Each structure stands twice: as structure tokens, then as C-alpha cells.
Known about the structure:
Elements: H1 2-10, H2 13-39, H3 42-74, H4 79-98, H5 104-121, H6 129-139, E1 146-153, E2 158-168, E3 171-177, E4 181-187, E5 193-201, H7 216-221, E6 228-233, E7 236-246, E8 250-253, H8 257-264, E9 267-269, H9 273-276, H10 282-295, H11 301-316, H12 322-334, H13 340-353
Helix pairs in contact: 2-3, 10-11, 12-13
Amino acid sequence: MKKVLEGLKNGDWKTRLYIIGTTVLMLAGLGGIVVSFIVNSMWLFLAGVAAGIAAIVIVQKFSIVTEELDAEELMPETEAESETEAETAAEFETESETETDAEPEAEITEKDDRHRIEERKKTLESYDEKKLKQVFYKYKVKRDHKCIIIDSWKQHQVLQAPAYIWISRKKVHFLIVEKETREIEVPRTEFTTLLYHPGIVCRTKEEYPQFRKETMMSKIFFKYLPSYRSGNRNGRPVIYKNLFELGNGLYLTNTSARVVLDMLQPVFQVDDQVTRDGHCQEIVKDIYKLGILLRNLVYTAKEYKDLVDDKIRTLANTGISETEYTEILQLLFRMNLITAEYMEYYKRYRAERQR
């Protein structure tokens, strides 16, 4: 009764028509049934019953719609959603203020960019546990699959997308999680190298918009997002990330590199002044590359320490001269690859081995 009164008071013309029509039908049905007994008319009785049933159907429909609307209107926003929308609104307001003097073409480009980013924000929203199980069944995802994030893969038009990776029959399978899922198969032989690309400058507003809203998939893949760093380029502050190129053109986040190193065992490559230096010893280059993997969260501090320890102990047991051995330790120390304490420790270690 409360909903009926509320509907008459605040409802639109359709709601009021439903209520008035239902009331008329109910009264007509009840009246028809009563009169049918008085005049002994079967047809009038059936008409009354039909009117009553119609009234009940309409009432039921009205109540269901009302409950659905109430549920939607009373659904609270999560803090993450509210903050994200507030940030987005603030960004748009700032952009609109600066765009007033822009060229018309620039305005269109900015609008297109915004629209594209807004569409990307929604790509993970439709995935729940049931849909994910269906996707895994459809693509025959293996139990030993791993999670990664592909920052870009131009050959297959992949941009900043989560993915599942597994190996089957000498092929590497990638299940790309976008608005719709798709599978990419590549021969394992194409992924023999992992090349380091440092200092990729970012436009922060375009970085992984689908992770700004908390969803089931964003929770699963959150730890594979790139690590962002701040710096300066040409005197201007910038935000940058370090990426790892698997094979030819598949760029992974730094937090995904460990997965492919363990799964595919590609040769890790770094192309810079240190690795190109013909006078630099190979062990220094190797430990330098381990340091890069440590700083990019590919290895833990303990793993790095154990790997470096193994290399230096092996070096200490070779026929290398004492002078060259000491120079290598000093160079590793100057490059912040070992501490002063470890430098002295390895000097003592070799001295003890040579007694």
C-alpha cells in the first residue's frame, strides 16, 4: 500500500496509469464476481475472474520493476570507484580549461583520446568467476598457466593488456584479456631472447586505465603492473617505466619478466655502455645484468646475493691473478653491485683457498 501511495505521489504518468488501471480492474473483477452470483451468470463470473487475474499480473509486474529500481538506486559506490570518478572529473576539468585556445583538430584528438581511455576502463568489468571458468574451458588453458601483463605487442595490436601464458606442443599460448578474450599462439623458438628497455617515458593518464576500478581481474593482475619511477629528461620531470622485450616486439612489464625467464629461459640481454665495453670483464657484465634484474624486482635480494656469490666464488677458484681479481672486486663495489663488506669477504675467501 505504501508503494502504491508513493507511486501516485511521486511516480510518472505511466506509474499512475498502472495504479489507477489496476485499481479499476480489481474493483471490476470483484464486482463482476459478486454480481454473477446475484444474476446467476457464468459469463459475468468468468469476466470478473479475468479482470482479477489481469489486475494481479499488473500488480506483480509493477512490484518487480519497483524492486529492481530500488536496488539500483540504493547500490552504494565503493570508495575506489568514487575516487576514480573524482580524479577523472578533475582531469577532464583541467583539460577543458587548457583546451580553449587549442586548434580544432587538437580538440578532436583530445576527445578521441578521452573516449578511448574511457572505453579501456571498462574492459575488465564483465569478467567474473563464472565467465573466467568458461573462458579457460573454451581455450583449454593448462593448469600450469601463469599471469603476465603485456605492455605492447604491435604485431597483434595488443596494448597494456593482462594475459595468461602457457606452453603446449612447442608453442607458447597467450590468452589476451581485453573486452573480449583472444588467443595468440607463437612457436617457442621465437622467444630465445629477453632484451632490456629502460626509461620508457609514460603519459600517466593513459597508463592501464582498466586497473583504476577494482574488479576481479584487476585484483588478479595488479601485482604485474609496471613499476613507475620519476626522473628528469631535458630538464623536465618525467615518469618512466622499464620494459623487457621478449623475442621481437613483445614488450612485457618488469614484474612479468620473471615469469618468462622461468618458463621460457630466454637469454637476458642488455645493450648499453657497460655491456658494449670491450675492456669490461664478462663476470662484471653478468653481475651488472643481475643488478638490473634486482632493481626491476625480477630477483629478490636473497636470489641476487646467492647468484653473485656463486659467480665470485667460481672466479676465486680459477687461475686469475690476484691483481685482476682485486680489480674486479673493486669495480663491482664502485658500481654498487657488492658492498665493501662483501668485497673484503671475497678477498679473504680467495686468500684462504690459496693456502
